[in-house]
Amino acid sequence: MITIQNLSKKYGTKEVLTNINIKFDKGRVYGIVGENGAGKTTLFRCIADLEDYEGEISSNSNPIKNRLGLLLTEPFFFQKITGKEYIQLLCNARNIKITDIDDRNIFDLPLSQYASTYSTGMKKKLALTAILLQSNEYFILDEPFNGVDIQSNIIITEIIHKLKELNKTVIISSHIFSTLSDNCDEIHLLSNGSIVKSVQKTDFQALETEMKQMTIGNKIEELRIT
Amino acid sequence: MGDILKLKMKEYFELQYKMTNRRFKDTGFEPLLAYIILTVGFVGLSIYLFYKTEFAEYIFMLSALTLIGKLSETRRTEFLKICFNDTKLKKIRVTENFICSMPFLIFLLYKQLFLSAFLLFVLSIILALLNFRTTLNFTIWTPFSKRPFEFTTGFRNTFYMFFAAYTLTAIAVSVNNFNLGVFAMLLVFATTLSYYSKPENEYYVWTYNINAKEFLFSKIKTAMLYSAFLALPIAIVLVILYPQNIAILSLFFVVAWAFLICIIVSKYAAYPDEMNITQGILLALCILFPPLLVVLIPYLFKKSENRLSSLLK
Predict the structure, then answer these.
(1) B92, B175, B184, B209: which could join B165 in a potential S-S bond, CB 3.0 to 4.6 Å?
(2) What tens digit of pLDDT does each residue of B289-304 get?
(3) Nearest-by-Cβ selection for A50 from B200, B206, B208
(4) Do the chains contact at A94 and B209, CB–CB below 8 Å?
(5) Which domains does chain A have, with CATH numbers?
C-alpha cells in the first residue's frame, strides 16, 4: 500500500501539485487522468522519489523506489546497448539473477539489436518487460499504451490483470479513457495539480461523460464545420 | 543567397561560442578566465608531455584526433544535416575540426614537427568530410554484456582502440621496446577512462536498490575488473618478456586503476551535472603529480556519496 498525505510540489514559485491525499491499496489498479501539464508525471516522480516534495509518501516497503517499477512516458536508452543488455542492466540493478531473458520475451522484441534503434512502441514494450522482470511490488505506468500496436495493447491489458491477481499495486496514466476504464478499479482526476475527483469503477461512465462535457463543451460547434 | 548562407554559418559559430561561454559560466568561471586557464593548462601539459616521454608526438596526435572525433558524433551530425545543406555542412564541419585542431597544430609547428602537423591537418579535414555510419545493422559483439552499461557501450564505440593497443604491443615486442608496450597498456586504460566522462540518465542510477556507497563500490569493482580484462593481455606479455620491469609495470597498472577510480568518483561528485572545470583541473594536476590521487579519491568519493544520496537510499 502507498499512502500520500498532504503532498505539494513547487518548481520555483510555481506550484505543480497542491495538497494531494491518496491511498493506493494492494491488488488494485488505479488510473490518473488529467490534461497535459496537470501534474501526473510530477506526481509519479514524487512517488518514485525522483523529486523533493512537501508532505509524506509512505508504503509497506520503504523506500518505495526499491520495489517500484517505473515505466516512463519516453524511456531513455543508451546508444549501442541491446534490448537484452537493457533488461540485464535493470535486473542487475535490483539484484535479480536472470538467465532466460529470451524465453520471457513475450512481445517478441529483437533483443539482440540495439534498443536505441527500436520504434517508440518497441521501446515501451522493452522498458515494460524489464520492469516486470525486476519482481517489483508497485508499478507506475506512465502512458503504457502510447505508440503500442493493437496486439501489444491486448497483452499489456492482460499483464495489468495478472499484476492485480498477484496482489501488486498498479498506477496508470493514459490519455485514452477506454484503456483506463478497462483496467482500473479507481480513477483519480488531476487538474491544476489537485485531485478534483476520485471515481470507483461503477461511475467511470459518468466520469467520461462529465470529462467530455468539460473538455469539449460547444467547441466543435464554434468551428462551424460545413 | 550567398549572404544568407554566410550569415547562417556565422550565426552557427556565434551560437557555439555563446554555448561554450554558458558552459563556463555554469561551472562558475568567467569565460575570459576559463580561456586563459585552458590555454595555460594546454601549453603547460603539452610542454610536460614532450619533456616526459618520447611518445609525446603520438599521444598529442591521438588526443587531438580523439577531440575532433567527438565532433563527428552521429546524433550531432544528423542534427546538423537537418539544419544545413550538404555544402554548408561540409564547410561547418571542416571549420570546426580546424578550430579544434588549431592549438595542437600550433604546438606541433612550434616543436618543428612539420610532418605530424601536416598529417593532423589532413586527418582533421578528412574526418570532417567522411560520413561515418555508426548505426550499422549489426550488433558489435562485446565480452561485457553481463554487466552493462559503461563497458558494454564503451567497448562498441572504441573497440578499434584495443586493436591499435594490441598491435602496438606486437610492434613493441618485435622492436624490443618496453616503453612502447607500457604506452599500449596505458592506451587501453585511457580508452576506458572515457567511458565515465558523461553522466547517465538519472533513471539508470535511481533504479538500483542499493545505497550510494554500495553503488560506487559496485561501479568501481566492475571498472577495475573489466579494465584489467582488457589490459592484462598486454601486461602479461610485458611481464614475460621483461621480468626485470615487473615493479614499474605494476606501478603503472595501479596508477591507471587509481585514475579510473578517480574519474568514476569525479563523475558522480558532479552528478547529475557534467564534470566541471575545477574537477578537470584537479585531474590534470593528478597527471602531473599522481600521489595527489590518494587525497583526491577519498574526497571525491565522499562528495559522490552525498550527490547520489537523494537517488539511492
Answers:
(1) B184
(2) 899 999 999 999 999 9
(3) B206
(4) yes
(5) 2-223 (3.40.50.300)
